[in-house]
Amino acid sequence: MKLYGSPGAPCTARVLLCLEEVGAEYELVTLSMPTGEHKGPVHLARNPFGQIPALEDGDLVLFESRAISRYVVRKYKTKASDLLKEGNLSESTMVDVWLEVEAQQYNPAISPIVFQSFILPKMRGATPDQAIIDTNLEKLKKVLEVYEARLSNSKYLAGDFFSLADLSHFSYTKYLMATPYGSVFESYPHVKAWWDDITSRPAFKKVAAGMMGS
Amino acid sequence: MSSVSVTVYGTPLSPAVSRVMVCLFEKEVDFKLAHVDMAKGQHKSPDFLKLQPFGQVPAFQDELTTVFESRAICRYICDKYPDKGNQMLMGRRDGGLLARTSVDQWLEAEGQSFNPPSSALVFQLVFAPMMGLKQDTASIEQNEAKLAKVLDVYDHRLGESKFLAGDDYTLADLAHLPNGHFLVTKDKGDLFTSRKNLGRWWEEISARPAWKKVVEMQNAPWA
């Protein structure tokens, strides 16, 4: 398997984390973002949206980090470890719910904060737009209120089991923690405890080491 | 005849609610629609928040199972009722992991690339006027430009594939119906029709009986 992307990019890191969690053998092919390699014809054949990451596994070519993650987790599932819980409908449904919550509630709030406060200044030498940060921080707090209630009743997001839903939150949150805005988690003790728990996993530590700012 | 076990909470005019409804119709799974009065703030009531903690529609119950997020609900409906109605919505069974994975990929494309600009457009064109809000013309322009780029990619894909995930109509196509329909009704249909393959695809998917049923319910005076 070949993963095309950049270890410092959040969506590439999402897939790297899956690959590490399931113990897959893979090669990371780093694309040169500054030279626009991701918009060139070779990469467009892998990802027609000109984005990273893309995965090659034999004849299969995949894009969208969340879809790649599902593929990786399914391919490597064992009796002992199934991060999608597809053998049990009530569990897999909860995994799907919280995967969508990440994609549709959490990500739209956190990614503009990360883009403005981390990516723009640190990777592009540009000035952040504080108004965008402030608006999205308020959105994120409302989302974290829901997470706090959920994680007060459940050890992990989909239930009392670790799943792809938890894992999918890692990369953007890791970047948030490298900015002053990471302190927002302090107001949500169960969310903070969940974060501390999942980031203690070896796969998380390994991927974090490859990301900038860790 | 068994009693109806499925309840969808919301109004057919909500894109996310209509996404769930069209899936239920495709799967031929009976359901009750429980209207949620958003104007009166019913979606923020404690009872509703127990079903959907973000205070959004749809909420969904099937006997004791509560599900939210429309795309997760659609996945649940397909997984819970694999032998009912359309059996190819998550990929043909004989297509194995690869068929399902292709559906996952294009569902994510919908969720991450099509949905943001199209939802912003739908809000400005459909819901802002309904709510007595002034339209933000800059937002309309920006999001139309963003959406056009996405649709160019789709048009290319649909030149090599009958539907987004492959030869069969799947959840990946279905997910686009709600916003696509509103764009067409608000005179933005040329976004689809000006692109040959995309136009062909839109004609086909919007003509499906399950979607027509939803549109009928949206147009009903009590919607």
From TrEMBL, chain A:
GST N-terminal domain segment(s): 1-80
Signal peptide from the UniProt entry: none
A Pfam match: GST_C
InterPro entries attached to this UniProt entry: Glutathione-S-Trfase_C-like (IPR010987), Glutathione-S-Trfase_C_sf (IPR036282), Glutathione_S-Trfase (IPR040079), Glutathione_S-Trfase_N (IPR004045), GST_C (IPR004046), GST_Phi_C (IPR034347), Thioredoxin-like_sf (IPR036249)
One GO term describing the cellular component: cytoplasm
Keyword flag Disulfide bond: no
Reactions catalysed according to its record: RX + glutathione = an S-substituted glutathione + a halide anion + H(+)
Keywords: Transferase
Record GO terms (molecular function): glutathione binding; glutathione transferase activity
Domain GST C-terminal: 88-214
GO annotation terms (biological process): glutathione metabolic process; response to herbicide
SUPFAM superfamilies per record: GST C-terminal domain-like, Thioredoxin-like
E.C. no: 2.5.1.18
Family to which the UniProt record says this protein belongs: Belongs to the GST superfamily. Phi family.
Protein's name according to its UniProt entry: glutathione transferase
Organism: Carex littledalei
Lineage: Eukaryota, Viridiplantae, Streptophyta, Embryophyta, Tracheophyta
UniProtKB/TrEMBL annotation, chain B:
This protein's record includes keyword Hydrolase: no
One Gene Ontology cellular component: cytoplasm
UniProt domain GST C-terminal: residue ranges: 96-223
Molecular function as annotated in GO: glutathione binding; glutathione transferase activity
Keywords: Transferase
Catalysed reactions, semicolon-separated: RX + glutathione = an S-substituted glutathione + a halide anion + H(+)
Name listed for the protein in its UniProt record: glutathione transferase
Organism: Carex littledalei
